[in-house]
Sequence to fold (453 residues):
Amino acid sequence: MQRKWKKIRLEKPLQGLHSLTSLRELCIKNCSNLEFLPEALFISSLSVLQIENCNALISLAEGLKHQNACLESLRIRGCHSLQSIAKSQLPSSLKRLEVKSCEKLLFLLDDREAGYASSLYSSAMQQESINNANSSLLEYLYVSQCPSLTSLSFRGWLPTELKHLEIWRCSKLTTLSSSGRLPETLHWLGIADCPELESIAERFYDNMSLEYIKISCCKNLKSIPDGLHNLNGLVAVYIWDCPSLVFIPESGFPNRNLRVLSMERCMKLKALPNRMHSLHSLQTLELRQCPSIVSIQEQGFPTNLTSLAIADLNINKELIAWGFHKLTFLRNLDFRGCRYAVSFPLEDRGMMLPTSLTRLTIARLPRLKYLSSKGFQNLTSLEYLSINDCPKLTSLPEPDLPSSLLQLIIFNCPLLKNRCKRDKGEEWFKIAHIPCVRVDGSFVYDRKMEDGA
Fold:
């Protein structure tokens, strides 16, 4: 029966595993005194290996490479004595590597050779390191909560077949690759909570496969690599909470396939890159809390946007003047944090909102007194309207809100709240036809609201 086993979990080392010739998955867990993995543990049929909470483990076995031609997935978690994973000990068949909560891990891929003690790193050794990277089939690399990690690879060469790279909460990580290059095969790049990270790469070279970039909570990151505009496969870019980020390359973003661009809380970012208006494939644009951006280009934003979110920018007044009505495909508009606006949209400029809108959110407009009747008159598709934190707002558009409106949310607008009381308020007749109305979290048709509850 043993020879038919497909999966086994170990909490104490067992002998005779080599006889389990059909074993596919092996989990070694809570072996507190295990320092090395005995070569006898591994058999050629093993495809998944998980090592968890083995606090004394300092090295993987040489047999992991030579006896495991089928190993495709390796997961290591909570092995706090492990300082590196020697590349020479990883089987070339490995496609997925996940490392989490290894407190002493200094670098992930240790591509040092026996001659490391020498102060000179010969070109032959460097070429051998590159060849090792080229021979790897690793496609998925996930690293999380390794507070001592400073670099992914000692020599700086990442596996050349890597497609998915994700790094979370590595507080001492300063660079991804000292070689300055990312694998050309990379599709997905995600980095979060790495406060010491200074560089992603020297530049994007031939990373035509890269589709997704998400970078967040990297407080020392000052710039994005050059060559961004050449990434014609790029679909989405998210850059959040990078307070030291000063600039994005002037050459800008690729204009072929980029659909989503989201930038939030980049406090020192001085400007948006050139040619923003030429991003013809862009559908969603989100710019929030980037106060150092003080102007936009005369051409404005790409007119094919379907969703636009703007919050707490110093270009709000300029953006309103440019004109939301030019965004003829826009369905969702989220506009927050403009301290200038007395009306929305600007009535003195005769501004209109795009008739394509189905959702509209306005919030944190401290001087806003009324919503422009002219600006709302053609919103025949509007279904959702949210108005938040507008303390001086007293009235809704005349003669009433669009008949298409299905949901109205009003929050922290005290003057408007009093005027929207059921059957009593001056604005009630404008909202009585709307199926769902909530004011400060209460359903407006609830009788309790009439009593001021």
